Amino acid sequence: MGGADGNLPVQRTGFVGRGRELKAIAQLLEVSRLVTVTGIGGAGKSRVAVEAADRLRERFPDGIWHVDASRLRHEDLLVHMVAAALKMRDQSARSEMTSLVEFLEGRTLLIVLDSCEVMSDACAELVDELLRSTSGVSVLATGRRLLDVPGELSYLLPPLSLPPAEDPSAEQVLRSEAGELFEQRARVAARDFTVNEETAPLVADLCHRLDGIPLAIELAAVQLRTLSLREILARIGEDRLDLLTGSRRGTDRHRTLRAAIGSSHELCEPQEKLLWARMSVFSGDCGLAALEQICSDDRLPGDQILPAVQGLVEKSILIPVQGPLGIRYRLLETVRVYGAEWLKRLEETETLQRRHRDYYLRLAVRGDQAWSGRGQLYWYVRIQQEHANIQTALEYCLDNPGEVLVGLDLVSSLWFLWVGCGWSRVGRRYLERALEASPEPSVPRCRALWVYSYVVSGQGDIETALRIAQECSRTAGRIGDFRSVLFARKMMGTAAFLNGELYDALSNLGATIASSSVDQDLNPCLLPATVELALTLTALGEAEQAMSVLEDCILTCEQRGELWLRSYAYYARARAQRATRSLVDAAESTRASLRIKQRFHDVLGVCLNLELLALIACDQLDVRRAATLLGAAQANWRSFGLPLMGSASFGAEHEQCVKECLAIMGEERYQDCFEEGQAMNLDEAITFAIE
């Protein structure tokens, strides 16, 4: 053999990051003689494999030998290519495989077999023969799918680590692998480029848009020769696959991002290509059931979806993601864009977007109907993990004038996502857009109006909540939508309570409860109205009557398996118990509410409970705890909206608690405890409050 060191290619640029990946590959090679590194085109498989091999020289005294299968033009020449790389000079009439096996016997070496997807069957046969016929040869292969050889271990190469998406510092960007790689390559293209506090957010945005794909990041950095960073960002959304073009000296498949991904596309079977294109309508990840319902038809039957998914996973196109409800599948954004181009060529974009929208409308309706039952936690998790696709479905409706009424149905059916799952700001934006796009009176518009009132009342925008509820009542009355009239009255009662107009609240909420149906209107009408009626009664000095009202509400929740509203009922009961000076019971009811809130990302409910526990602690003269709870509530209110929902009565209680704490503790000690609470995130605040 030539030199015992081998023939690893000399790298012209510095290697960035990948510490965990290199360690993992080294460990796998201790266990198996065949390890295949897989990943999407441009993920850096070849570079990582070469770097990993280079760091393993001590293990392989007979060298590390690189064979680039991408240069192969015919599979019959693969053995010859390996022999040539190993500097084997056998000129006999024997078969090259026989000569190669004899040549390798007794040697301990590593072959880096790069880009096996080009001739995957030939590579698999070669590797299988080498592993069976020799004892000291190991193979580190790279490819977009596995070789499927006995004993093979695989390593799926992930994208580079990314900096924080929001307001990253220069230090945070450079600590990420993607940011460091961009900075290194950018300084070659533009010598005066630096990652500083001004450029850091732009670099972070770029890295996220390019999914942390090394090739994409390197090609983007090259563009700094002629474009500014802002110009690159502006163009990436338009033509990222063509914009990201590299040097002519690169291999064909790496000259552009399009070529890198296109070479993966060429490996796919026809049905895999079709599924890839159709999957481009999804955002984020999705489940198999969604794929089967949205992407199947006569050309791609439902029973062929799973085999196509498996094929795309094997070729590193699809990324499996373990979600709380099972395996889901994700396309990197750059891969999704490539698929969307093919979908457009197939003239199926409009059809698939409508199917996608219809699927998520059905899902939203099912969630709405099931929200008050025993599957509530399931629907909370399910709808949370679908939020990206839900927003895509809403965007489709709002971007197409003929679909706006369907958009109103969709955004209204998701009231429980906006109100109950911590997405009020997103919900408000979509409700405003949908209502603006459909000003004519209709049942869907009336429903969207009361949902909008519900959302903004929780944010503390009481004036808007009341105005919208009144508009809903007038419009619904004119068109005969009496269910929306009922719901609007409930929302007027909510606004009146928050505004301190207690007798108006009593009238509206009482009428709502009297007219509601237990079978149809539990949430978001009957049960919330009952809780708010109890809060109103407590504020009017009728705490005992409030607790009586809540007993029936809690019993209904327990019978139905309802948790979300039950936690608010516990909160209302705690307020009534505090009013009767049953402070120990009040504290336990508040903690019972928080234990449920811990399972939902209900920032509003958590903050209300934190405020109430602070009042109870102050009543018990535990002012240190009260001040800490006030700080925790203050920090988390900011992530939701207006503190205490803008309620004057809640605000007065809060200010009185602060005054009492200051009077006992003094400014300095109070501030120390308050800041301790301010440093807590939502989960930490709940844990502190429950303990």
Output the keywords.
mainly alpha, Rossmann fold, Arc Repressor Mutant, subunit A, three-stranded antiparallel sheet, 34 helices, elongated
Strand content: 5-15%
Number of helices: 34
Structural class category: mainly alpha
**Subunit organisation of the chains:** single chain
- Anisotropy-based shape: elongated
CATH topology of the largest domain: Rossmann fold
The termini sit apart by 70 Å
Radius of gyration: 31 Å
Strand element count: 8
**Main beta-sheet strand count, sense and barrel state:** 5 strands, parallel
- Helical content class: 55-70%
Please give the CATH class of the largest domain: Alpha Beta
Strand order of the largest sheet: 2-3-4-1-5
- Which parts are unreliable, with pLDDT below 50 for 5 consecutive residues or more? none
Count of discrete structural domains: 5
What does this structure look like?
Helix 5 (120-133) links the parallel strand 3 and strand 4 (137-143). This protein has five domains: 19-156, 3-Layer(aba) Sandwich (Rossmann fold); 170-258; 268-347, Orthogonal Bundle (Arc Repressor Mutant, subunit A); 348-439; 602-690, no CATH class. The model has no long low-confidence stretch (mean pLDDT 90). It is 63% helix and 6% strand. The termini are far apart. The strands form two sheets. Strands 2-3-4-1-5 form a five-stranded parallel sheet, sandwiched between helices. The protein has a three-stranded antiparallel sheet with strand order 6-8-7. By secondary structure, the protein is mainly α.
